[in-house]
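Wait, mind explaining this?

_____
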Amino acid sequence: MASGLLVGSKNESDTQGGTQGGTQGSTQGGTQDVPQDVPQGDDLDKWIEYQVAVYPKITTEELASLSGKGLRTIKRRIAKMPHIVYVGSGYSGHWEVKPKQK
């Protein structure tokens, strides 16, 4: 009977160690993928403008992922920038940055 307790204790510690290691590793890896240089507030508009100028085929989903912001936030910010226009449809379109009108 004593050996049954030892085996049970060993299995519990193995399971606990495996669970903790897996959880900690995945959490730490996920939070480190967010770029540290993504602007906040009004600078986000400039960052979006730069990204679509340099990468005209970038999607709003990619912008959201890169910035760490929500998809709705990105779409809302773009909608407030009339000089950024999506030309074409769906996957075959691209972004164009027009000169700002005063």
Q: What stands out?
A: DSSP finds four helices and two strands in the chain. The first helix runs from residue 2 to 32. The helical segments are 2-32, 43-54, 60-67, 71-79.
